Amino acid sequence: RISSQMIARMNKDGKIEKFPKPVIHGQPEGYTSHFRDPKVFEKNSQLYAILGAQNENEMGRLLLYRSQDVVDWHFEGEIKTNLTQFGYMWECPEYFRLGNKDVILMCPQGVEAEGDKYRNIYQSGY
């Protein structure tokens, strides 16, 4: 399986145009096909996309892409966190500003329970 990211644009009349080719075709080297859920946002006149991913060691990660025009995307790298082993896949990333802070959320899959901590099946908000 090859994971790809597609786009569509809506014109001012509400008509949707789907682009025929992926704007990001396949995951970067070192990551599995668990590569999805782009969160696109603008910051400092640049477009960015954060994608949920799994690395080849089966650990969840977030990847950052950058674009000038929403069509040509460039892989910037992995978003560094202090989380080493925290689930086998991170999905559904979210980014927003809260006051003067940047906030990133994601939903990790496969986090082991520690007593009552992380006991819920569907983790979110780390």
UniProtKB/TrEMBL annotation:
<dbReference type="Pfam" id="PF00251">
    <property type="entry name" value="Glyco_hydro_32N"/>
</dbReference>
<dbReference type="GO" id="GO:0016798">
    <property type="term" value="F:hydrolase activity, acting on glycosyl bonds"/>
</dbReference>
<comment type="similarity">
    <text>Belongs to the glycosyl hydrolase 32 family.</text>
</comment>
<protein>
    <submittedName>
        <fullName>Sucrose-6-phosphate hydrolase</fullName>
    </submittedName>
</protein>
<dbReference type="InterPro" id="IPR013148">
    <property type="entry name" value="Glyco_hydro_32_N"/>
</dbReference>
<keyword id="KW-0378">Hydrolase</keyword>
<dbReference type="InterPro" id="IPR023296">
    <property type="entry name" value="Glyco_hydro_beta-prop_sf"/>
</dbReference>
<dbReference type="InterPro" id="IPR051214">
    <property type="entry name" value="GH32_Enzymes"/>
</dbReference>
<keyword id="KW-0326">Glycosidase</keyword>
<feature type="domain" description="Glycosyl hydrolase family 32 N-terminal">
    <location>
        <begin position="3"/>
        <end position="126"/>
    </location>
</feature>
